[in-house]
Design goal:
The protein has 294 residues and is mostly helical. The chain contains twelve helices and two strands. Helix 2 runs antiparallel to helix 3, helix 2 packs parallel to helix 4 and helix 2 packs across helix 9.
Length: 294
Amino acid sequence: MTILQTLISGILLGGIYSLISMGLNLILGVVRIINFAHGELLMISMYISFLFYTTWGMDPYVSAILVIICLFLLGVITQRIMIQPILDTPASTKIFATLGLSIALQNLALMTVSADHFSVRTSYQSAVIHIGELVVSVPRLIAFVTAITVAVLLYLFLQKTMTGKAVRAVAMQRQAAYLMGVNVKRIYLLAFGIGSALVGLAGAMLMPIYSVYPTVGTSFVLIAFVVVVLGGMGSMFGAFFGGLIIGLVEALSGVLFSPGLKEAVYFAIFILVLLFRPSGIFSLGKGAGEVGLK
């Protein structure tokens, strides 16, 4: 029974990781940039959700749509002002740019709101569903269902809409898409905006579960990078299932070995995947964009 409870907890935890990783994976698959400031976008979204809660008493789930809009706009502005001018520069320049943005946002948060931890109090925060002897956390279940919904909607958007097909075209071959009349720069803005909006949604879903502080995004973004590599860079469903796997690994390693070893276990998996399956477990051996956005 303990193992079954651990599996349920791990799957629900993996849903949270999936929700954070899908936005990161979309940006990587389309814009082809590793956004080291992704964790700070999560931190900002949690602060915005907390601000709505303290100012207007809005439930984090209710304010989620406003947080999504704010993060979409922030992502578009970041892409336009900071990322777009350096798209044709070496990869190291992009890495330093997003890493610098990450450090700047962390220190800005430290200066403006201090290093204190802030959290919300809701009626369902500690709510659980009993299934026999098993216990399911309601907030984590909501985050898990949200992750499934986002994965399906994102897949339908990329597959069934003209804009989604344009996003896939840019991800597969930027020059060919440009020659076919696709506005590549606009697609980059859209992809970065949607990727940021997804992490905004993740932040709102996390507020009933975790407290927010300036470095909260660091731990989550490290796990998100592991999920992205595990599932396949650019793969939306890879990010979803990769998150579930990491959630299960973290939960099981904490029970079978020691809670202090859980990071060591999934980083060991991270290294093994890089060595033996660098394209990701759920990829088909193609390019990141081609695999993930099909």
